[in-house]
Amino acid sequence: MSIASEPQADSQPSAFDLLGGEPGVRQLVDRFYDLMDLDERFVHLRSLHPNVLDGSRDKLFWFLCGWLGGPGHYEARFGHPRLRARHLPFPIASRERDDWLLCMAQAMHDNGVPEPLLDRLLEAFNGTADWMRNRPDA
């Protein structure tokens, strides 16, 4: 389930808004990818990505904007995300899922995402990341 598909009361801001809109989502995505280059815990995760991360940064930013309840930049550019299909070429087992989630949790923590929102996002990210697994655990 995406954050965007969760029912929102008219007076409640979306996760997109709570993160600070596009600047907040961009900051989160940039920290996420920066951690891959800076933190040895994410060397394996980084190895699954291209040498230059600009395209990856943009695609995750565009996707997260819509997924979090903001503008649908990704769909406007590429159509339906088809996340699992687009990730099938990459070996994703429990290790890769867990590394991705840890990196995103660290990025949210580093960016000062308040705990209730951080917990809500991690729960949603966990469901999506688990669904992305396409290889058995070694």
User: What count of domains describes the coordinates?
Assistant: 1
Q: What is the CATH superfamily classification?
A: Globins
Strand content: under 5%
Radius of gyration: 15 Å
Helix content: 55-70%
Enumerate how many helices there are, as a single number. Answer: 8
**CATH architecture term:** Orthogonal Bundle
- Measured distance between first and last alpha carbons: 27 Å
Description:
This protein has 138 residues and is mainly α. It has one domain: Globins (Globin-like), CATH 1.10.490. The chain contains 8 helices and no strands. Helix 2 (21-38) packs across helix 4, helix 2 (21-38) packs across helix 7 and helix 7 (94-110) runs antiparallel to helix 8. The chain is globular, with a radius of gyration of 15 Å. The two termini are 27 Å apart. The model has no long low-confidence stretch (mean pLDDT 93).
List the helices and strands and how they pair.
Layout: H1 15-18, H2 21-38, H3 43-47, H4 54-67, H5 73-78, H6 83-87, H7 94-110, H8 115-131
Helix pairs in contact: 2-4, 2-7, 7-8
Short description, anyone?
By secondary structure, this protein is mainly alpha-helical. The protein has helices at residues 15-18, 21-38, 43-47, 54-67, 73-78, 83-87, 94-110, 115-131.
Q: Which key terms come to mind for this protein?
A:
single chain, 138 residues, mainly alpha, Globin-like, 62% helix
